[in-house]
């Protein structure tokens, strides 16, 4: 029997890679991880974590405005200091990097600082050294991608936007996905003039249509300038900023442009092409339910295999992969249905299950229950922010197949509802649940009248 330096060699210490390494090591196998950038990957360093911190920062804007109706006087107009937020964020991320380091050390995983290249089915090369392993796990994630246009070198991507030297008083984001709506909201909340440029008629393609329209209206009310059905034609550096020309002829002058036009697998220089590892049409790695590529000793998970690019998905894949390869019982395939998600635009979106459009296509007859209301807090705050809640019900089975919310802390509410949707509970179950009063979330169990079929 061949002997290897390690049982498992993980490339990439992001959410999925670290979870797989630690959980595998806990079963007693010998594990190493190679990482050339930062521990914790996109989520901890340039994704979920700093984004949520910046989103909190941006929410203070509303809080200051809302407070006067509750009797508060703020002696002088609040002002915002970008450097304080950015540098406090940097310190917090350093703390988290340290935690990841200790978690790996504590689990007995060898951490190697360097970019690994796969040289054969059981060997990698890192920092000039050849290391062998029975299995190699590719968990390298994705990398932001920017389309070609004149002046695209003046854009920043989502890896760079958190650490801008100066606060962009005029900010533009290109794209209509998660990152675009979140950063348009963040910079708007922090006090910038914010523009979002999206090539389609309505952003957040794939989300429930009513949710997308509602979010559009709420974001516009908060002051985000939405430019739909247009794209960036060129960017030129001008005195004091960047001149952005859109394909509809409009010209805007801004201080920073964020390209939030999607992410691609970070496979360059990894050596997988020479080994004949099969890719899907979008260049993600094709794997089976055991997360094995077409070369069975090479495994992959997370953003690099496509599917929902979400940290909890990578974590679930890591746990599954370890069960398959080192566990005492074989798990079934990971269930990718009903994965709840939140978009941290302002107000937040929380969603689980099918959109109304998907449900109509799948089931034909559906029932829609929805509530569009002014949250209690805003009776005194004077804010005109509204909240949308919506249940999509398969008429034949009475099962709630989709739940959607746009409003304060929507992700917190939908996480609980996601359990009910995953458990295939019916509208009758929702109706039989006694609400918590006074909350916004109680709407989900008190929506008695049918909105439409
Ligand atoms: P998305 O794939 O969500 O969105 C990309 C956007 O860019 C789409 O609106 C797309 O338009 C547009 N686009 C693509 N190509 C072009 C082009 N050539 N010119 C103009 N526009 C273009 O990617 P993001 O970068 O926003 O985020 C990456 C992923 O990270 C997300 O899909 C999500 O899975 C994850 N993420 C999750 C978060 C969360 O959980 N809260 C937060 C942030 C990111 P079109 O729709 O027309 O194709």
Any overview of this molecule?
- By secondary structure, this protein is α/β, with parallel strands linked by helices.
- It contains twelve helices and 21 strands.
- The strands form five sheets. Strands 1, 2, 3, 4, 5, 6 and 16 form a seven-stranded mixed beta sheet that branches.
- A hairpin with a 2-residue loop joins strand 5 and strand 6 (129-138).
- The termini are far apart.
- NADPH dihydro-nicotinamide-adenine-dinucleotide phosphate binds at residues 147, 174-180, 182, 198-200, 205, 231, 260-263, 308-310, 341-344.
CATH topology (fold) name of the largest domain = FAD/NAD(P)-binding domain
Nearest-integer average pLDDT: 97
Identify the CATH architecture of the largest domain.
Answer: 3-Layer(bba) Sandwich
Sequence stretches where pLDDT stays below 50 over 5 or more residues:
none
What does the radius of gyration come to? 24 Å
Query: In CATH's first tier, which class of the largest domain applies?
Result: Alpha Beta
Strand content: 15-25%
Map the helices and strands.
Blueprint: E1 6-11, H1 15-26, E2 31-35, H2 41-46, H3 48-67, H4 82-106, E3 110-113, E4 117-120, E5 123-126, E6 129-138, E7 142-144, E8 170-174, H5 178-189, E9 193-198, H6 209-221, E10 225-228, E11 232-238, E12 241-246, E13 251-254, E14 256-259, E15 263-265, H7 272-275, E16 298-300, H8 311-326, E17 341-343, E18 349-353, H9 356-363, E19 366-373, H10 377-381, E20 387-394, E21 400-406, H11 410-422, H12 427-432
This protein binds NADPH dihydro-nicotinamide-adenine-dinucleotide phosphate (NDP).
Residues 147, 174-180, 182, 198-200, 205, 231, 260-263, 308-310, 341-344 line the site of NADPH dihydro-nicotinamide-adenine-dinucleotide phosphate (NDP).
